[in-house]
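S.,

Sequence below, as promised.
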Amino acid sequence: MNKDKTKEKINEFSENVKTFWKQNSTHLVTSIIVSVVTLLITTLATSDASFFVYAGIIYIFLALFFLQQYKIVFDKRFSKVHNTLIEYFGWAARNNDYYRRKQHFVDEKQLLAKTLVEKCLPALLQTETIRARNIKNINIFLDAGTAIAEIFPLIVSKGINIPFSASINIYTNNLAGIIELHRKGDPKSYVLKEENIHLLGGQPLYDYQAVTGKETEKAIKSICRKKDTEEKEDLSSITIGIITANWIMSGVGLDEIRLAARGNGHLAIKETIIKYADYIYIIAPLAKIIRTHDLKTLNEIVPHNDKYEEYRIDADKRETTFLLTTKRATAPLNITTIALSSCINDNNNKNYKVSEYCPDHRISGTKEEIEVQEFPQDYIRSHKDFLYNINS
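The prediction came back faster than expected:
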């Protein structure tokens, strides 16, 4: 079997070499001839001083011609890569807010996704309250957003490590998350199969790589347990909503969460998930947690035509709403970590709990380099004292 694979690889390599030669033989032969002629001229020039000036001029022209031939070869070789990137990302890669936001907090988002899938969800599903319900069906809603998109490949490839048998279904309005799922692995090796993943219908939003609207909200309501009717609840099913927002407005004391979001229908989707899900996880890089409830000033700071809207999570959701973020040991955001730790110890948050699994995240560099990584936008760096209460 191994010999067959080795032979197959050798044949594949041989075919690639033959193809490359057929496509570029003219330019490669020309380059080799030019190289030999250039070497001869260099030898003559060094042995005859009178020939040096003329040889130098010829040498320059031949060298430029040589480089041009190789440029043609490499252009042909790498144009496929270029065209593939354009086909995959297209215009969106150059002129789309989503792909710009995707570049922010990359390592931190991946760390949060790993923590959620490997620690938070298994721990939640093994609590005595949930175990007592003899859960048979686990429904998970994955919200739109770059932080949520990182969760898809992990949760589908690994599943959720729980000591009981249950059907797991993923529901989402996150188009980018589905792309991440297809891009980062082999579906044949996934624990969760395609029939376990459900993309909700709705209005597609270009800048958010998501769908929203009444159709999406209706689908969420129909999947969740009926909470606003007299219909008997199905205790064998559990629904977990995993959401994020453009900003998590928590107030100076971090005692109350309000979600700030923009984009047609985005806030309504989050509100629907929060209202109908049994448990909520709010996923956010630490710099996305701002210590103010002043929405008007936030809209003035951020230069965007679409204005943020806010949603305050009800206090009766406190015991089932968890904030998962990262921790810092150094400035400038160590003060937010300290404040969040106080919230855990004092247990005085009004409408959420801080997850006990918030991971440490280290950022290296000079003071200025760290600040740029923590606050990628200049308009945020300019108002960091207000947004993060840094001077307090």
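The chain has a mean pLDDT of 83.

Coffee later?
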